[in-house]
Amino acid sequence: GEASPIFLQLGKDAIELTKSLEAKELQRSDLDRRAKEATRRFESAEREFGTHKRDRARLIGNDIDQARQYNARSLENDYADYEYDPDDVLADDDLKTQLDIMKRDEPLHTRDAISLQTHSMETLIRDTRQLIEQTLGTVSIDVLRDHDSMLPWVKTGLQYHRKQELKSCLFCGNALTEERAIALEAAIDDRYDRLINDIADAARRATELIDALIASRSVLPSPNDISAEHRSAYLDAVSVLRKSIDDGVEIAKTALQLLGQKGKAPNAAITRSSLTADETASRWEANLTESLAAVNKVIAKHNQAHSEFKRTQEARRSRIKKH
pTM higher than 0.90, yes or no? Predict the structure, then answer.
């Protein structure tokens, strides 16, 4: 007979339910597969991350001189609550500086401040200018006026002949009369002695200034004796100071050369010369003082780093970890 509509509907519902269950089963199977794949990738990533942490901890431990104490757990603890900043990443040169500091068991020795005890350049130049432009006035003997470079020789010879009571000239053999001796003494009076002594004094000061400046080069610390974090600033400051020292040596050498030239011909005025201007000498003194202060400022920072070495090491250790 003909099937009941109720049974037909039940059969149809059963078929639909079966299809739905089969679809759900396929979906569950896919989800299981994807879950297993995700778990596999997660476990792989965890292993890779664990390896990375161990490798990174080993690298950091070596850098901060804690190879045996610093491990992956230490790394996790350090980074757990830290908020990172782009400035934490160090440039290669900065990282090298931090590592250099960490490698030291003890700080570099302290350094004394540089002190330059020199004569005033401004005074030397002013005195030199006055001396080389000065003359003895009118020389009473015509032949000496034409040969003023012979004045030192005549002065020395006359003093010797007077002391030995010689009546004839040892050089030419002619008689040395009292009148001639008096005339020579009048030509070379006390002004000559004062000028010669002043020239000698200025030359001595120039020589001492040159020697002091040259010697100062040898007392400047080597850049390798300055802590790494202050070495760059020291190189800049000491370069300026060396330039100032070299300039001073050249200025003083020019003065010394002109004084020597003047000493050979005391009655000849030197009005055109390469002697530096008084204002330049004054400015040089100011530059030397400023550049010396800059070097000593860096040395003071180096000495402070020495006294704070342990705290500095900890700060560098933390800086490297953040990088």
Answer: no
